[in-house]
Design goal:
This protein is mostly helical. The protein contains three helices and no strands.
């Protein structure tokens, strides 16, 4: 077994690192954004600023958190699609 076959190409490692960074970024965003937005909107926006009841604050904050989840998912699909297209173009040039 020669040394070149045992070690992957540097371009493959760079693509893998880039993909992992993208995945970790969107994972953190998926956890932090909806939860943070839920509690912020409930306490400050709906109950504080708009004077809604606690029950209404829970409901509208949950709706806002669900919309945030869908937005993050759409952004992830867009980023993954564009990353795949860039990798495909790089492979065609070789």
């Amino acid at each position: 077994m020669d040394a070149k076959a045992a070690r992957p190409e540097p371009r493959f490692e760079a693509n893998l690192a880039s993909t992992l960074k993208t995945l970790l970024f969107f994972t953190a965003l998926m956890i932090l954004l909806p939860v943070g937005l839920y509690f912020f909107a409930k306490a400050y926006l709906f109950e504080g600023l708009l004077g809604m009841s606690t029950r209404d604050g829970y409901f509208y904050s949950a709706v806002l958190a669900v919309l945030a989840v869908h937005t993050v998912l759409a952004l992830f699909v867009y980023a993954a699609w564009n990353e795949g297209a860039r990798q495909g173009l790089a492979a065609k040039r070789d």
